[in-house]
Design a protein that fits this description.
- With about 400 residues, the protein is of the alpha/beta class.
- It has 14 helices and 20 strands.
- The chain has two domains: about 220 residues, TIM Barrel (Alpha-Beta Barrel), CATH 3.20.20; about 130 residues, Lyase, Ornithine Decarboxylase, Chain A, domain 1 (Beta Barrel), CATH 2.40.37.10.
- It has an eight-stranded parallel beta barrel, surrounded by six helices. It has a six-stranded antiparallel β-barrel with strand order 11-14-17-16-15-18.
């Protein structure tokens, strides 16, 4: 058996990356907590919902008042599925989009009544739940008839959005075969077509081709007298850089939460978005190192002189990227300090030499604002050689979330 240390085993087993992503499939029960919950050493997230409202307003202005279907898949990109969903409904969002049926059902259970579109797949046993709960379902195959059967049985109408593959190559009815599915679905009085949509590749010239294909499919269906509902294609990237994709409705995801869909858009900042999430923890130890003393497994950091370091209580089990030592910083008392050594399951370490007044219990910010300084999720993503999408989605849903407006 080959030698492998505990940290590398956990990384190889997916605890650091894939495992963090899998947290999103857990229940999001611990979303709203009291201000006393984070008084211990445990990390927590602060979510400023007014930032989400600001970002939605910007999107509406930028798209000339188009309807907005907010994408809140992946636990609302780490921000908390039901709390964000309820807030968006309260500020008048047209609808919500999710990636899994269980997310749609959780929103309905939480009392959300606005339209909810499930992008994800479903099976015949799911169809009764979809129809009973008035969930709009993405369809692109004969599975749509499961919904028709359920609607007949329940004496209700099934709601669908037809997904057209205009060149992304993932899921959807191929654009040159879409006429057949329109003929079949439109013949079912138990099914209401609420929309027709596609996903753009975000390759600028090809996106134009995709919009032409989608419009061609819709125009031909309308010539036949079919009601097609809302045409939609634009995600956050399309909203910022491709007005032809706005159509009847836009589907922002990451922009809702104050972040940008690409490094280019982050630099351009066409929309002045406000990040809603701040990640906080506390100093749990202050340590004076003498020259030659080390920190963490295998002592990757060794003091070259007498140095002061702090340990803070968070790590990759909370969703913090693993390999960011010597590349990322944290905020303490409104100043940036470099991370050293490796991120472990429950701890990070930073060098704070020269800051004699730092003490245990001091607040530590991994990303967000403290005083006049900010560390962005994009900066943390760059240090981890990843994207801000993953930084947000990796946030453990069991972390306490403090909501403010």
């Amino acid at each position: 058996m080959s030698n492998i240390n505990r940290r590398d085993f956990l990384y190889g087993a997916g605890v650091l990356t894939a495992g963090a992503m899998n947290f999103n499939s857990l229940s999001c029960a611990a979303e709203t907590v009291s201000d006393t919950r984070h008084s211990s050493w445990d990390p927590w997230l602060e979510i400023d919902l007014s930032c989400i409202s600001h970002n939605i307003d910007l999107i509406k202005q930028h798209t000339n008042g188009r309807k907005v279907m907010a994408v809140i898949k992946g636990n609302a990109y780490g921000h908390g599925l039901t709390e964000v969903g309820k807030y968006l409904e309260n500020i008048g969002i047209y609808g919500l989009a999710v990636g899994k049926l269980q997310e749609a059902l959780a929103l309905r259970e939480a009392g959300v009544k606005c339209p909810i579109l499930n992008f994800g797949p479903f099976s015949q046993p799911d169809s009764d739940l979809i129809v009973e709960n008035d969930i709009s379902q993405s369809v692109y195959s004969s599975s749509a008839f499961f919904l028709s059967d359920s609607a007949k049985r329940l004496n209700k109408q099934a709601r669908v959005h037809i997904k057209v593959d205009t060149g992304m190559g993932r899921v959807g009815v191929p654009h040159d075969e879409a006429a057949l599915i329109f003929d079949d679905i439109a013949s079912k009085s138990e099914i209401k077509i609420e929309g027709v949509f596609t996903a753009l590749t975000e390759e600028k010239e090809f996106d134009k081709v995709q919009i032409e294909r989608l419009n061609d499919v819709c125009d031909k269906a309308e010539v036949k007298g079919y009601f097609i509902g809302l045409r939609h294609a634009a995600s956050s990237a399309g909203i910022m850089d491709f007005p032809d994709s706005y159509l009847d409705m836009v589907r922002p995801g990451i922009a809702i939460y104050g972040h940008y869909p690409s490094d280019r858009e982050y630099e351009l900042k066409r929309l002045h978005l406000k990040p809603a999430m701040t990640f906080k923890t506390r100093v749990c130890r202050v340590n004076d190192l003498e020259s030659g003393e080390g920190v963490s497994y295998h002592r990757p950091f060794k003091a070259e002189k007498n140095e002061k370091v702090i340990t803070a209580s968070t790590g990759y089990s909370d969703g913090i990227p693993y390999r960011i030592a010597d590349k990322a910083s944290v905020l303490i008392r409104g100043r940036k300090f470099p991370l050293i050594a490796a991120v472990t399951a429950n701890h990070i370490t930073a060098e704070v030499t020269g800051m004699e007044d730092i003490k245990t219990g001091d607040e530590v910010v991994l990303f967000g604002m403290q005083g006049n300084e900010r560390i962005t999720a994009e900066e943390l993503a760059a240090a981890a050689d990843t994207s801000s999408y993953k930084i947000l989605l990796w946030m453990n849903p069991l972390l306490p979330r403090i909501y403010k407006t």
